[in-house]
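Lesson 9: reading folded outputs for more than one chain in a single document. The general rule is that every protein is listed as its sequence immediately followed by its structure tokens, and records are never interleaved. Here is the first one.
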Amino acid sequence: MVLNSLNVTARDSPRPRRRNQTVATQPRLTSPAIGEILCSVFRSRKNPPLILLVEDDPTQIETASFAAFDLGLDFDSAATGSEALDKLAERPADVVLLNIRTPDLSGYEACRRIKTAPETASTQILFVTSRVDEEDLLPGFEALANDYVAKPFSGRELKARIKSALRTKDLLDALTARTRFLELQQEITEKLEDPDFAAEGARSTILGGILDRVTALFLADGATLHTRSSGRSDTRIALSTTWPGGDPPVYIHALALAEDPRIERPPRMPGETRESGSNWAILSAPLWVASELVGTIRLHREGALPRPGDSSELEHLVALADHLARTLHRAELMVEVAVARV
């Protein structure tokens, strides 16, 4: 039976479900963002990886959709290069199986556009071709394709090439995430060691900008930083500038410094019941200078709590907190020295 739908998930496939097999569900389309790609390394993915086939042959579409089902992946297809670009703008695919000859747009040109766009640069592209001689394959690699697959498809070969492409993409995404993480650490150092940090009113502005970057990197809904100077008991709060609905949740001012990394629900505010309480999840990481607790950085996200051990997000936040603690402490010492000289 040929599948009539060109948008197939593992759930839609007519094959019986295997025991203990994870079945992919229809994904929720989201706007592409580099942060989404990076955060998939820090947190578990909301959806299975997506395979996009650019092909108008129903037989090849059916074979590819069954291969995706067997691998527990989401599957979609497009008949033309332009349609494929439109679908990638809605949800970037992890692997694109791209026919060299598409009706309205050359497969080579579609490949170049996909690989040179920042949000899809790590997408793995496998050219689909019925001719595998050198003169037909070289133009595809010159257009930045990663591999090729011959048609008509062999189910076993197709699955092997898809798995290889996904491994490559996972490595590239991890490298990109690590690079962005290091860039954020460098940005924190530069901003906190800038002489402007000591200026009146500049502290909250600079820390707010840093927290905006933290929010974007971790795909949170907001971030906060509670700090206190060494040897003092008063606590200061810095907030990221964007929050759902425009304002940060009211529970933020009830938070105190936390000594241990944790994932938790916010404290219940006066008048709240368990049923009407805030639907926020908080990830906290302490800032330590030697044996002194000087602050806590928190990610705030609307929704359910992540499962313990589900990802390395908290581990990355702890590493960022360590760097922030050292840099912030050094910046405050520099401010004290400057004041003493005056």
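And here is the second record, again sequence then tokens.
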Amino acid sequence: MTISNKHFRTTLGKFTTGECVVTAGSGTVSPLGTTINAFCSVSLEPPQILFCLRRLAGSYASVMASPYFVVNILTKDQQEIAERCTVHGGGGLREGEYTISKYGPPILKGCLATIECKVYKNYPGGDHTIIVAQVLDLNCDPSSVTQNPLLFFNSQYCSFGDKKPEALGIEVAA
């Protein structure tokens, strides 16, 4: 059976994911972010995470060149950052919307949580690279419990507060 890219994306789009921006760059490399939603924990001991990055992404070389990166878990109010960092070349970060990690990469302000990481191993995964990383530091602002996460469902951004089917891109039969 042949599975088309469109059918594959449509079907997997029914699985709701959180939206994150991976930030990288330090020294001579301009800070950039790339939006991801293939992200998960791998291990508690030692603490590890993974994310998947498309090899044809414009930000691929820059992210892969950096041994350190930050996973920024976005709020619904950060949709514009997610959209900007989805562009083909990865999104340039704007002055004032980030601070610099002690490891070098930018940390976006106002996120639900941030995870500072060091690359452990990379694995091929079809048209993506699976990046496994050691967690070096975590930040989860206690006030974030009152914020809604930025989600991705049905190929659209949404949040827990979006209860109307049409807001989630669901067609309702009359």
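What the second record shows: The mean pLDDT is 88.
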